[in-house]
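Handout for the seminar on molecular recognition.
Each group receives one record of this type.
Step one: identify the two inputs.
Step two: read the structure output and locate the region that could contact nicotinamide-adenine-dinucleotide.
Step three: write two sentences on what you found, then compare them with the reference statements printed after the record.
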Amino acid sequence: MNLKITLLPGDGIGPEVTKAAVKVLNYVAQKFDVATELISKDFGGVSIDNFGIPLTEETLQVCYKSNAVLLGAVGGHQWENLEHQKKPEAGLLKLRKNLGLFANIRPAKVYSSFLDASSLKNDVIEDTDFIVLRELTGGIYFGEPRGYNKSKGWNTMVYSENEVERIAHLAFKMAKDRNKKVTSVDKANVLEVSQFWRNVVQNIHQDYPDIQLENMYVDNAAMQIVRNPKQFDVILTSNIFGDILSDIAGMITGSLGMLPSASLGEKHALYEPVHGSAPDIAGQNAANPIAAIASVAMMLHHTFQMTKAAEILDEAIERTLKTGLRTTDIFKEQYKLASTTEMTDAIIENFEEIYNEQALGVFTL
Ligand code: NAD
């Protein structure tokens, strides 16, 4: 098998964390005897500087031809005053749209050695492990009519049956490999579009009798995520609700530098850390590479079905944190300060160790 991946390192710390992720990816691929075929393209601010636009047609064509895209981050002060369509972030929206990425996955997993980084109490978040599955290409962010004038502003929240069906299928399939529970989050007590969403999800549920389905209003879900996050397995929700809930869920686990994400479509997939380009620490070998490396683990799992490799990589991250290594963003005085490259190398070492233990039958997954 060839892992054909387009790299879009982008701006700021994007290239640093992408380099770290690629080092890990190449190492894992070699261990699992698969080849990587990596093509790196300019994207975001660096593409504006070189080609005048954040996403060129050529870059898009390269993305279409690969199995997956690994993105760093885009943006920076020097491009902030450009008009909206010419900004680095506009390239991101165009990329997601053109690749047809209708589902966004954000895991909310608490590393056991990282409990003290959360603003919530240890006993509340301990063993939390759920995902927020957000519909990404429909709903109120794209619905027409939209606009505003002097006296009013308006948007339209609309979902077609097909849009809800495809993401509901994905949610139930994901729950099958996890703890077999889907919580569909909506506002069906107020919004007709949510009632429709709920009806479609309930219909699709009939194909998955072994999965538990519960419906929850979004206001209650926001409260439940901070009250008792352990109750969730897969949260399935619309674009706007998922936008908000995934940020809440992300923060219960600690730092921005730790959060990976995946965006999936019917033909394409994009993996990226949740954080931005962090211009304040760019070029200092100080960025936390864990979000980017954990995005590689998601890629191995979702695009390449290399479940074992993904599991070992997640475990290697956990083990590295257990050794007390911390980048600046998550550093406290009882820990050992690590640079981007030191953290990356430690994760590779731990990967090697777990891999060897497993080969000897010591470690059981
Ligand atoms: P940011 O995520 O870049 O940074 C917020 C804070 O978190 C900063 O203090 C930064 O140093 C820290 N941080 C972020 N990631 C880190 C990491 N891996 N390791 C250590 N510390 C980390 O958000 P921002 O400052 O609001 O935005 C900066 C630029 O990034 C803007 O141009 C914004 O538009 C862009 N942005 C891009 C994306 C993306 O590419 N997907 C997402 C968000 C923001």
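Reference statements: The chain has a mean pLDDT of 94. Residues 71 and 198 are 33 Å apart (CA to CA).
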